[in-house]
């Protein structure tokens, strides 16, 4: 009996982890293919993103209310000075990252999007060095070179390459580097009280919506106002189908954030990062099989080179975390750009049971 108990506990833990990973895969891969599917017939990705933000805000507000009623503890509400000074830069960068990522689906395939977006860790490392969240080491230089080389190889002579879409998603990856650096700095300020992901999403969504609105007004406002699918609709059934499809995307984005949180809170941020690598491979295989995306041998080699850089970065983080004897806040961000990325707790002595800090990136998204 004594031996059976640990075995049962281990099997249960493994089954639970596998279930959480599969749940995360469903939401993450699902929203990627959803965005590509919807933009084929609905050519307003910025409007789509704004509706997703509204849905996430509503669900996060509802979740806060339910938690407050059950725990009888008031949720954090930031003052206007803190809100505008501390949260606004992160919200603007996040809105541009998500908006440009969804915009790129108008021009490029899922495979090229997935490959290019995986390079976001390159910009995360660069901005981590600029803001002195990382120390310059030879291993980091090697990581940057591997990812940059992989980025060049998997876009070189791609048969489905589109410069406009590539520029959009690469710009999103660049802004993503700023986004996650600012996110880390925001969440490390314990006095703000935004460690809970629901509170973070609740505070970020309104400013993200407002930050994306000028871009929407310039590029999509006039066209949307004359579109028969929305404002000048003549078929009520078509309008309801479009709104239903947009609402579904908001649910997927919210579910993605929660699935990441569940996975990290039950395992670790390292588990999510490793799972993210296999998720990218699964996305590429599905894109080639279901959508007929053409991926050459050189593209695959470039992607493998990029993944080797990401894997090296994860391994270095794991070794660095084990080598630290005293509790310290994590100095770098996780390595998966499409994950909606995590920050480790500053008190990691009981890693398996603690609630890990993280921030959700919608859509990618």
Automatic annotation (TrEMBL):
Task: Output the superkingdom of the source species.
Answer: Eukaryota
Spell out the Pfam families in the cross-references.
TPT
Annotated membrane-spanning segments are 12-34, 46-67, 112-131, 138-156, 162-182, 202-219, 239-258, 297-316
Provide the protein's localization.
Answer: Membrane
List the coiled-coil residues: none
Species of the source: Ovis ammon polii
Q: Does the keyword Protein biosynthesis apply?
A: no
Q: Which CDD domains would you find in this protein's record?
A: TPT_S35C2
Instruction: Please provide one cellular component term from the Gene Ontology annotations of this protein.
Output: membrane
Entry protein name: Sugar phosphate transporter domain-containing protein
């Amino acid at each position: 009996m004594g031996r059976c108990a640990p075995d049962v506990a281990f099997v249960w833990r493994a089954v639970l982890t596998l279930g959480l990973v599969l749940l995360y895969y469903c939401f993450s891969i699902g929203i990627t293919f959803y965005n590509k599917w919807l933009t084929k017939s609905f050519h307003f990705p910025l409007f789509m993103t704004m509706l997703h933000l509204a849905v996430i805000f509503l669900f996060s507000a509802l979740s806060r209310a339910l938690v407050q009623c059950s725990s009888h503890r008031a949720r954090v509400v930031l003052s206007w000075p803190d809100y505008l000074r501390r949260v606004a830069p992160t919200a603007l960068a996040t809105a541009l990252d998500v908006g440009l990522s969804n915009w790129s689906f108008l021009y490029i395939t899922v495979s090229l999007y997935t490959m290019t977006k995986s390079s976001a860790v390159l910009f995360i490392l660069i901005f981590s060095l600029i803001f002195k969240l990382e120390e310059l080491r030879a291993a980091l230089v090697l990581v940057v070179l591997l990812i940059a080389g992989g980025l060049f190889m998997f876009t070189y002579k791609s048969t489905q390459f589109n410069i406009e879409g590539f520029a959009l998603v690469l710009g999103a990856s660049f802004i993503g580097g700023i986004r996650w650096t600012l996110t880390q700095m925001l969440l490390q300020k314990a006095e703000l009280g935004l460690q809970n992901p629901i509170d973070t999403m609740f505070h970020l969504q309104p400013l993200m919506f407002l930050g994306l609105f000028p871009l929407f007004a310039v590029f999509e406002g006039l066209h949307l106002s004359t579109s028969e699918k929305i404002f000048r609709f003549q078929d009520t059934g078509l309008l309801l189908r479009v709104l239903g499809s947009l609402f579904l995307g908001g649910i997927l984005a919210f579910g993605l954030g929660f699935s990441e949180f569940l996975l990290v809170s039950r395992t670790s941020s390292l588990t999510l990062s490793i799972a993210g690598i296999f998720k990218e491979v699964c996305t590429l295989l599905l894109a080639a099989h279901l959508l007929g995306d053409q991926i050459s041998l050189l593209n695959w080699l470039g992607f493998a080179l990029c993944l080797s850089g990401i894997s090296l970065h994860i391994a270095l983080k794991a070794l660095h975390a084990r080598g630290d004897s005293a509790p310290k806040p994590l100095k770098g961000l996780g390595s998966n750009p499409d994950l909606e990325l995590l920050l480790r707790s500053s008190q990691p002595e009981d890693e398996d049971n603690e609630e890990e800090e993280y921030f959700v990136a919608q859509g990618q998204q």
